[in-house]
Amino acid sequence: MTSPAAATPESSARRYSYLGPAGTFTWQALGQVPEAVGAEWHPVSNVGEALDDVVAGRSVAAMIAVENSVEGGVSATQDALATIPGLRIIGEYLVPVTFSLVAPRGVTLGDVRVVAAHPVAYAQCRRWLESALPTHGHVPAASNVAAPLSLLEPGSVAQAAIAPAGITTLHDLDELATGIGDNANAVTRFVLVSRSRAIPPRTGADKTSIIAELPDDAPGRLLEMLEQFATRGVNMSLIESRPIGDALGRYRFVIDLDGHVHDERVADALLGLRRFSPNVIFLGSYPRADARQIEVVSQYGDDVFTDARDWLRAILSGEPEG
Questions:
Q1: Tens digit of each residue's pLDDT (9 = 90 or more) over 107-163
Q2: Do 209 and 301 share a domain, yes or no?
Q3: Which of 91, 125, 208, 246 lies in the 20 to 30 Å Cα band around 15?
Q4: Domain range enclosing 161
């Protein structure tokens, strides 16, 4: 399929993979990418398939969910980024998680006895469902779009479905209720992943994503890793552990840093981490979706690091110290 805009000869050869079909939250995130307008949008069934498209060169990039404000990191995405080489994050996008209850035309809320829903979406709308439909049944669906589409199939057991807001613009369904999620502030964070080695220029409102392992399980190793950032004034906006899988008790850490690899403090922290960790994966530096400028304490500004290097260089070369 193509994006909502008309394709052009220059863009039609570019393909973007996303968790489909049309209407998913991933589809909404891809709609925020200016370069994807008019290009081919390729729906896939899972994160692995999306990243395989990128690695194989079938797609220029893939949009994948990496974190949810309610449920935390997406483990499938974190594990894939840790084990599939050659991938870089080049952009970040936020999508509000807003659910509606939809039904075929002519069905009213009073007609609803069974609701189709993806299990995660169902859990996030549980309080509303118990209040509005206290005796309803639940039919699990494979995705947030598969649920409403099942209503259009002959012999559907469900009379209504939980779906992303806006799904009625794509399919012949009516909204029975909007904003039914239990958390009105729920947001999912998506990242655009490609094979490009080019690092987006720093904007002052950037994020750097890495994955690192501890050298061993000796006492204090985690503290040593964290000190690589703390002593350089680098804030971590996310840190989550994931099992490496080769033995019990072995974990890797998925980390997001405030700042860009071209920031002196971030670059110095990564050098320190690389000396400490047996395996560091640089996933990319890219603009933050919220465009929030990173505040840096003066003692960790770029000039402090460059002045310190100049001072050491003068000592080593026998020049007068500045």
A1: 999 999 999 998 889 999 999 999 999 999 999 998 899 999 999 999 999 999 999
A2: yes
A3: 208
A4: 99-178
